[in-house]
Amino acid sequence: MAKHGKAAPKRGAARKPAVPIESAEATHATTEPRLVMAVPKGRVLNQLAPRLAPLGVDRDVLLADDRTLVRDDPTTGVRFLLLKPDDVPTYVEYGSADLGVVGRDVLLEREYDVYAPLDLGIGICRMVVAGKAQAHPPGRTLRVATKFPNIASRYFLGKGQQVDLVYVQGSVELAPLTGLADVIVDIVESGETLRQNGLTVLEVICPISSVVIANRVALKLKRAAIAPLLAGLRI
Ligand code: PRP
To answer: CATH: 3.40.190.10, 1.10.260.40, 3.10.450.50, 3.50.50.60. Which one for 125-208?
Structure first.
């Protein structure tokens, strides 16, 4: 048997009948949704669900503790796609979702051809430079670890400070602890991760919050469905 995957059934052994296509489809989507909204899995979803609840969206649809990535809300006809935060604008730009909710950090890091009509005032945090108290090495260029290389390079360029950037994907706080970098550029929300790793905020780059983004074509063609949703979220 291969290391990954199931063993092939023995010749002549009874196999389970294949699921008919109709019933497989019916499990996931019975009708076309009025709107498709891409939302980020994780912390922000807990803050987004109560904002959508007054518009008729069932909280349990968004917060169900399972692995389904497509969630249909029967009352409002909105289909939710649960994505990694960085992927939300991509789905909206290409029209696989009409709307999305994403942190402004994602939009600052990469350019997307989407509208951003509304700041939700949730997912509030800060983009910062953080490190140990005495972070600047004497006699050499500051080394900065980050998963936001564009934001970081713009920031230091704006200050006229030359730095060496080291790209990492996560657990950025480890970089100054191991000598990979002198400081990090990262998001701070509660400050707990910095505190528990003996790091502090050295400079604040900008505030961050979650915004609604919209596909340019959908905003025109589905205005009748999108406008009341945006109006409801604005309150
Ligand atoms: C983010 C960020 C910090 C942490 C800050 O990481 O990169 O590590 O949250 O939050 P706090 O100030 O509330 O402690 P995330 O949880 O997205 O995971 P990652 O480190 O794998 O990127």
So the answer is: 3.40.190.10
Ligand 1 centroid distance, CA of 173 (Å): 9
Residue 46 clears pLDDT 90, i.e. is over it: yes
Higher pLDDT, 138 or 61: 61
190 lines ligand 1 (CB under 6 A): yes
77-104 pLDDT, tens per residue? Answer: 999 999 999 999 999 999 999 999 999 9
Residue 60 Cα to ligand 1 middle (Å): 25
pLDDT of residue 11: 40
Atom 22 (ligand 1): residue with closest C-alpha? Answer: 170
pLDDT of residue 133: 86
Q: Does 106 sit in the ligand 1 pocket, CB within 6 Å?
A: no
Burial code (b: 16+ CB inside 10 Å, e: under 16) for 58-97 equals beebbeeeeeeeebbbeebebbbbbbebebbbbbbbeeeb
With bands split at pLDDT 50, 70 and 90, how would you rate the model's confidence at 14?
very low
pTM of the model: 0.85
Q: Where are the domains of the chain?
A: 31-123+210-233, 125-208
The answer, yes or no, to whether any atom of ligand 1 lies below 6 A from the CB of 23, is: no
Across the beta sheet with 125-131, the strand order is 163-167, 142-146, 183-188, 125-131, 200-208
Query: ∠212-214-219 over CA atoms, to 5°?
Result: 130
d(CA 176, CA 178): 6
Q: Token pair of 215, please?
A: 């596909």
